């Protein structure tokens, strides 16, 4: 199974619009972060985790010519507003299944109502099949287990894909979930910035969670322009590292 980090940034992205800070001006490509998203490849199939505002650019960058399934963590703009770009993939592969929790499915129906009841036929709309994920399911030949976590007061999902746990935008992980993913091969976890935030783990909190999980390898995502990649690499404990756009792992 191959995992590619399509994006590792927050809702603002890095560099951030109208900002001249040292990270936004950095020439290290690892400091250039599009919105957080990932691609799972397995036996010729591709699963995308989250389709944010940068989805089209990410697909072009990685020359993705087919998508077989999508999994959504939650319905914020930086995670779902790329759904309009699925039309070409529909022409190639037909209806695309999207796995999410009930909250996200309800928001997709509200925000993208024209997908399901288009007022007219023109350039076409994305053709999706929303599937509520409440228990482990087979997705493109992989066992995927939903991981209920909290994003502030919101109930969102992380995903355990075989022996890899993917969690972003979380501010609280229940003990039942921590127990389930403890000792996994790879943990992907959000680490927003150094300062605390009401709805996301900061770096210290993310490191503390990673130390509880004890994954063989931990990669941090969803980082703001407060984080300089090369500096964070030096600060993190052994076995932990910031991910960056384009990083690929074989699990």
Q: Can you put this structure into words, describing what you see?
A:
There is one protein chain. Helix content is 23%, strand content 28%. The protein has 251 residues and is α/β, with parallel strands linked by helices. The chain has one domain (2-250): 4-Layer Sandwich (Metallo-beta-lactamase, Chain A). The protein has a seven-stranded mixed sheet. It has a seven-stranded mixed sheet with strand order 7-8-9-10-11-12-13. A hairpin with a 2-residue loop joins strand 7 (137-139) and strand 8. The N and C termini lie close together (5 Å). The mean pLDDT is 97.
Structure summarized in a few sentences:
This protein is an alpha/beta fold.
Features:
7-stranded mixed beta sheet; globular; Metallo-beta-lactamase, Chain A; about 30% strand; about 250 residues; alpha/beta
CATH class value:
Alpha Beta
Could you state the order of secondary-structure elements as H and E? Answer: EEEHEHHEHHEEEEEHEHEHEE
CATH architecture title: 4-Layer Sandwich
Q: What would the principal axes of the Cα set say about the shape?
A: globular
CATH topology: Metallo-beta-lactamase, Chain A
Radius of gyration: 17 Å
**Structural class of the helix and strand makeup?**
alpha/beta
What proportion of the residues form beta strands (DSSP E)?
Answer: 25-35%
Superfamily (CATH H level) name: Ribonuclease Z/Hydroxyacylglutathione hydrolase-like
Helical fraction equals 10-25%
Write down the overall mean pLDDT.
Answer: 97
